[in-house]
Amino acid sequence: AKFDRVVFNDNALFECAEFQSWASFIEATFKYTAFFKEAKFINDDMYIFFYRSIFKSLTSFKEVNFHSEVSFSGCEFHGRTNFVHSTFGQYTLFDGVDAKSSFIFFGAEFTRAPSFSNAQVPPDLIDGMIVNYAKAEHDKAKPTPTRKDLALNAGDCHRYRQLKCFAIEARNHAQEQRFFAMEMRAKRGHVDKQWSSNFISHLYEWSS
């Protein structure tokens, strides 16, 4: 499905839509309500692009199933936006997003930590957000992870740190502890080789 640079001059209604191949909304403009409630992006091998799209009004991605990698990088959200109880099965990018109103992820579940680099978003977006720790996979026949595995861990470490900073700003102590523990766990797989530092990060993770 290709909607690149399309201008939706009326309500865009994609409720319960199923996208079984790639979906592209690059630089699309939604002038009124964008309604994707309960939509399904169900092909694990495809990519979903909302890159640099503009959402002018109420936007709902409530209970959407994103099986694939998805990018909202560079998007503008001018109205209330919610991803309540949506699921994200792969990497998710919100880099450079500008959210000018509420941005809600309560009950949204991420298989891997989402990325919010250089995003202008309200820090309380982490309230109720569920982020699972995903260990970087590597060839089990090899005794040590590859450089690619270590790079994945480094990226995850940065993303957990971003989420932790949001939690600190939002004064959500429980989420702060959770994301810090994940950050330390990812860091151990990347750069933290000293036993003393490992022990401290293990201790914090166990106590969180």
Uncertain segments of ≥5 residues (pLDDT<50)?
Answer: 138-151, 190-204
Strand content: 15-25%
Q: Counting H and I runs of at least 4 residues, what is the number of helices? A: 3
Structural class: alpha/beta
Q: What is the arithmetic mean of pLDDT?
A: 86
The percent range for helix content is: 25-40%
Determine Rg (CA atoms, Å): 18 Å
| C-alpha end-to-end distance | 44 Å
Number of strands: 20
Order of helices and strands: EEEEEEEEEEEEEEEEEEEEHHH
How are strands sequenced across the largest beta sheet?
Answer: 3-7-11-15-19-20
Given the C-alpha coordinates, what overall shape results? globular
Largest sheet: 6 strands, parallel
Account of the 3D structure:
Helices cover 25% and strands 20% of the residues. The protein is of the alpha/beta class and 208 residues long. Strands 3-7-11-15-19-20 form a six-stranded parallel β-sheet, with no helix packed on it. About 14% of the residues have low confidence.
Short structural description:
This protein is an alpha/beta fold and 208 residues long. The chain is 25% helix and 20% strand.
Key phrases:
20 strands, 208 residues, 3 helices, alpha/beta, 5-stranded parallel β-sheet, 6-stranded parallel β-sheet, single chain
Record the SSE blueprint:
Elements: E1 7-8, E2 12-13, E3 18-19, E4 23-24, E5 29-30, E6 34-35, E7 40-41, E8 47-49, E9 54-55, E10 59-60, E11 65-66, E12 69-71, E13 76-77, E14 81-82, E15 87-88, E16 92-93, E17 98-99, E18 103-104, E19 109-110, E20 130-131, H1 147-170, H2 173-188, H3 195-207
Parallel strand pairs: 1-5, 2-6, 3-7, 4-8, 5-9, 6-10, 7-11, 8-12, 9-13, 10-14, 11-15, 12-16, 13-17, 14-18, 15-19, 19-20
Helix pairs in contact: 1-2, 2-3
